[in-house]
Amino acid sequence: MRPEVIHVSLGNAQTIPIWFASLTELPSYCESVDLRIGPCILITDTNLVPLYLDQVKTSLLDSGWGPTTEIIIPSGEASKSADVLQSIYDQTLQSGLDRQTPIFALGGGVIGDLAGFAAATLLRGLPLVHLPTSLIAQVDSSIGGKTGINHRIGKNLIGAFYQPHLVLTDLDLLQSLPELEWTSGLAEVVKHGFIADADFFTYLSSNWDAILQRDNEQVQRMVIHAARIKASIVSKDEKESSLRAILNFGHTFAHSIERVAGYGQFTHGEAVALGMRAATKVSSLIHPNLPHHLIDSFLLKLPVRNSIGDISIDALIQAMYYDKKVMAGQLRLILIRDIGDAYVHDQVSEDLIAQGWESIMQS
Amino acid sequence: MRPEVIHVSLGNAQTIPIWFASLTELPSYCESVDLRIGPCILITDTNLVPLYLDQVKTSLLDSGWGPTTEIIIPSGEASKSADVLQSIYDQTLQSGLDRQTPIFALGGGVIGDLAGFAAATLLRGLPLVHLPTSLIAQVDSSIGGKTGINHRIGKNLIGAFYQPHLVLTDLDLLQSLPELEWTSGLAEVVKHGFIADADFFTYLSSNWDAILQRDNEQVQRMVIHAARIKASIVSKDEKESSLRAILNFGHTFAHSIERVAGYGQFTHGEAVALGMRAATKVSSLIHPNLPHHLIDSFLLKLPVRNSIGDISIDALIQAMYYDKKVMAGQLRLILIRDIGDAYVHDQVSEDLIAQGWESIMQS
Question: Is residue A277 exposed (0-12), middle (13-18) or buried (19+ Cβ within 10 Å)?
Fold first, then answer.
């Protein structure tokens, strides 16, 4: 495949390139955004070390980069913590970095958010390069500059908007993703269709079997298209003052599931798929013409857990109030009027929300 | 005095107003920048609680603000720590804030940096209002968006550039500052003359006695002029890619003194006065026409400690390598060619730096 590129254009004349190419070509893409060849920091997780670390490191060293400071984080959401962040600060500062020392974030959403927030806050900002390895990271979390860690009160409550210099997305990595990561990542891909692009939803529906089997051509087409939707939304509203909020479709429910069930009990993609079904149910109560069952049955085709079991609805609703999108104590939700047409709905009643939760209590 | 205002104009069409007016007028200035009247967070330190907290709180409550979450930090540099930051996160998140809940930072440089960094990183950014109470904060740290905390390896190594919505500077507060804070704050004022404004240095020299005695009219004139210099430099280079670095004149030495002597042994202003003398000495070795003794004798008039005693020069030099301005292991310093004309000098030799240190070993 010829390398493709998407440009995320931001307000202040800043443009972030997202290249789709092999990880081994990292040095030449770094050069194209004028990163200083020299010492650098590589942050990745324990699962990825045997898969990609040597490959990335060798390609850097062969092109004159180094020394590299390697920081290996335990894989999983629990690493988005103040303690792990502090250990990144300790290790990087001990290595003697300066403001031109880039951080390479090699991993999925957890590594991107964590390493991105470290880059945002070390010396008030180091150059950052995202090397997304998971499907969620490639279509969503590596694009748009959201970084952060969790707090016991809720997910992503500590963080910053911080843009990378470059995103290098290697689509071949998706072929070796564990099945559960692949299928749960598809939830975020589908979300892009629901909120902003009905044609994309149609395309996904028509090619769903090939996609589930990771047909190479369909995977490339799907990921690049989904990344383009995300880039377009971010370009219009970097700091989430309005439009960008629609990307949170299903996420207020999802965060609540993850929080009440305990982080790690559901994958983020599973929680998002469930959350989108709940949000679709609520949407259909307000917009009766919404093809609710079409969406619901499509999401049920995802081979992931499709009910939350017997978690208390009261606890789930209570947890929603800690969401960042809560304004002055009112529950705001992202709802859809139709496929491809999402919006922010203020003051959704708890009664409607409870019906949303009930719709995903059992499969 | 009629309220004066300075506007800090930033690249992305953002403008930060710095108002010089009474603290009690805070609500009307908040309204002028469209902050949402409602819940808010007040962060201040133990020393300031008996002086100003009630006054600020009452003026807010009287104008319909509230409830207020008050966070009281132990006064002193040691509070710029990861632990204190975490306690701010815990207290604010427990209070149930949202993205429109502003943080009012009532205090000197420590509170401004710490509360500013909390505002930068809570929910990826809350509205921030600086209410600077010290001289250093009024002329320097409240202007320009630098926020952060210390790391055991060095000062301000963790942080972010984050602009306030508003700075409200009450010049009357300076009259009740402890003498040591006043005199050590003057070091930063003088710095603005050295680096960017020879006329301002002349003005300070001519009115020095009145200023030391805090003559009301001279204090107002001096603070507003010094704030204007800072605002102008920040407007030209918000992220310190070039020009803004000159504001660090004396600071690589100063941070080294604070680090090696132990934080709190020297006030920041004392360390900066000493650091500027060392930097001036180094400057004079490279630029023989610099009126080195004029500057040195002026700085010696500051009634603060004027030598570092018998700290090891080797340890001081070693500590300079941890400074954020060190590029790829080379010591960069801000030097002056003449009064009002500072620049970044790359690769200063350790021999010259040692001579700088020697010049402030004894008074």
Answer: buried
- Joined tokens for residue A242: 């309005």
Question: In this structure, are strands A68-73 and A15-20 parallel, antiparallel, or unpaired?
Answer: unpaired
CB A257 within 8 A of CB A266: yes
Cβ separation of B154 and A93 shorter than 8 Å?
yes
Residue length of chain A: 363
Contact B23, B170 (CB under 8 A): yes
Cis peptide preceding B67, ω within 30 of 0: yes
Residue type, A162: Y
A175 φψ region: left (φ > 0), alpha (ψ -120 to 50), beta (else): alpha
Contacts 24+ apart (CB under 8 A), B296-302: B296/B359, B298/B190, B298/B205, B298/B208, B299/B187, B299/B190, B299/B273, B300/B363, B301/B208, B302/B183, B302/B184, B302/B186, B302/B187, B302/B190, B302/B273
CB B160 within 8 A of CB B121: yes
- A146-151 and A128-132 strand pairing: unpaired
> pLDDT of B216-252, one tens digit each?
999 999 999 999 999 999 999 888 888 889 999 999 9
How far is residue B74's CA from residue B150's CA, in Å, rounded to a whole number? 15
pTM of the model: 0.92
Cβ-Cβ contacts under 8 Å, A325 against chain B:
98
Give the closest residue to A192 by CA, choosing from A238, A154, A150, A223: A223
Look over chain B and give the mean of its residue pLDDT values, rounded to a whole number. Answer: 93
Is the minimum CB–CB distance between B330 and chain A shorter than 8 Å?
no
Q: CB–CB of A151 and B93 under 8 A?
A: yes
The C-alpha atoms of residue B163 and residue B12 are separated, in whole angstroms, by 12
Convert A273-341 into a string of H (helix), E (strand) and C (coil): HHHHHHHHHHHHHHCCCCCHHHHHHHHHCCCCCCCCCCCCHHHHHHHHCCCCCCECCECCEEEEEECCE
CB nearest to A328's CB, from B38, B161, B326: B38
Give the dihedral of Cα atoms B100, B104, B110, B114; nearest 10 deg.
Answer: -20
Span A260-309, pLDDT tens digits: 998 778 988 899 999 999 999 999 999 999 999 999 989 999 888 889 98
| Distance separating alpha carbons of residues B109 and B318, to the nearest angstrom | 26
CB within 8 Å: A98 and B324: yes
Residue of B nearest to A38 (CA): B328
Size of interface A-B (CB pairs under 8 A): 98
Task: Report d(CA B20, CA B171) in Å as an integer.
Answer: 7
Nearest-angstrom CA–CA distance, B4 and A9: 38
